[in-house]
């Protein structure tokens, strides 16, 4: 670690920007086997992209040269379960409202089945939330959208499985 700290003290050139959930069971650098200075990591419950995180992604790509933006959701996400349960708590209420469109986009369940107890429904919402976050990033950042169109960066998403420790890309 000491060598990595010394090596990166003067400058940083990470290869990716990863937006992950706040969940402590998803240690992003370990998940992707990366060390100090290898990736930028932004974390917020439900891996939603607000203005500040999108600005950070712009910095990480346009100014620091990262070639990948990766939105990483995870199984059994508490923020998604909170949305499915209609949870409200201080400032968390506003954050969860940003995940609600993903829940509303998931079709095929009766109202009584759209609950945090329905694991299949929750997992569909988690995946849709990653998709919605990626779409939001592209829509809100002309910089990132232009870099992607030019082939300079890729914007992708995936789901980390808490039970297996593996990441599945979303197609």
Low-pLDDT segments, ≥5 res: none
SS-based class:
alpha/beta
Amount of beta strand: 15-25%
What is the straight-line distance between the termini?
Answer: 35 Å
Q: Summarize the helix and strand pattern as letters.
A: HEHEHEHHHHHEE
Biggest sheet strand order reads 2-1-3-4-5
Number of helices: 8
Notes on the protein architecture:
It is a single chain. With about 170 residues, the protein is an alpha/beta fold. Helices cover about 45% and strands about 15% of the residues. The protein has 8 helices and 5 strands; from the N terminus they run αβαβαβαααααββ. A hairpin with a 6-residue loop joins strand 4 and strand 5 (about 165-170). The longest helix has 22 residues, at about 120-140.
Could you name the key traits of this structure?
171 residues; alpha/beta; 5 strands
Write the layout of secondary structure elements.
Layout: H1 2-8, E1 16-20, H2 28-31, E2 39-43, H3 51-63, E3 68-74, H4 78-85, H5 92-97, H6 100-105, H7 119-140, H8 142-149, E4 154-160, E5 167-169
Parallel strand pairs: 1-2, 1-3, 3-4
Antiparallel strand pairs: 4-5
Short summary of the structure?
This protein has about 170 residues and is α/β, with parallel strands linked by helices.
